[in-house]
Amino acid sequence: MRRLMYEARAQLASPVRNPRTATVIGRLLGLAFLLCFGTGLYSHFLQQPLPWMTFPTRPAGLYQVTQGTHIVAGIACFPLLLAKLYVVFPQLFRYPPVTSFADFLERASIALFVGASLVEITIGLLNTYQWYPFPFPFRQVHFALAFVIIGSLLVHIGVKLPLIAAHWRAAPADGPEERHPVDTNAEDTAAVALAVTKVSTDEGLSRTGGITGRVLSYIDGAPDLPARTSRRGFLTTVALAVTAVVGLTAGQTLAPLDAANVFGPRKKGVGPQGVPVNRTSAQAKVATAALSADWVLTLAVGGTERVFSRAELAALPQTDVDLPIACVEGWSQMAAWRGVRLRDLVDAAGGSPDSDLRLISLEQRGGFKQTEMGSEYVRDPLTLVALELNGETLDLEHGFPARMIAPGRPGVLQTKWLSRIEAIDA
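Above: the chain's sequence. Below: its structure in token form.
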């Protein structure tokens, strides 16, 4: 078995499959996952804050940047993860598969990391298209898997730290080229060579010398190794793959790349009033209530309730702001909004802008039919109960008769089809 497994590894010989390449790809992959993890936590707690949390409202496009980074880094993980698996693939044929508890811990952590990572980035990509063919809730599983990935990654790094440190920097230009399998050591070399030379089957004797020579030359870095793929060519291919998948989707976030947005599920400027839409009025089943002549916005603040018709809201002092809609799927669109400052409306109803608010939509179902807004947003002069978008009356698909728009908030919290605003302690 040892001979067969090592022969399989020898057949996979390549200048690409060595600790230096594994380290280079691994640190890029680790950086991508750390970016995803940090920006993902920020997005999660914006939507489900802990009681003590407050969030910055400047820069106004902060969430546009953080969530765009989250999606771009997640997409980059696809070619990087596949490249890392290609480099370390021969390790599947190591014999014995486990040599110590630390070795078991490392192999178990990498198996968990790879499995969780593949699921995480796949369901994340499907979420950008709002397609959920899996039988579990996306948000909860996506959040939990993030911790599994980071935990298993830390264990893997801890076990492999000596190897990573040894190959973090490039070898000197005049140094020997590495041509051994990832993690091979002198003891493994000697054991395998001895096992190979002891093979004595009739069909194997004639092949033993060739196998032994190939194994030893493979490990010792002999120049006769067939260079199927050069290291430079491999890294160039990985770089081009990352550039392609990012460049062809990042235009949904980055305006300069909009023309190259081939695969992004949303495109800038496409949608009612030139702004894309995620949840439609038909999906929310709000058209009848939203278009009703007797619609009013109820404010329950300061211990009293006050109602405003749309005409009364339009008669109040209006403010113009430029703010993006930035959604968790990674797309964003800057737009011009006009409406009543929330803090002025709360003040007119006898409330305090230092109160946290609950925003209630006309829609009866959905995870964001009610959202909460911290006082930092209520006080901000850019936060509006918006009545117009891009110089026109708010379209039904964008939240007519009134919606919320605030700086630095995810699109799912920019509540459309407003019905009621109330102080959380009311």
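The CA atoms of residues 81 and 114 lie 8 Å apart.
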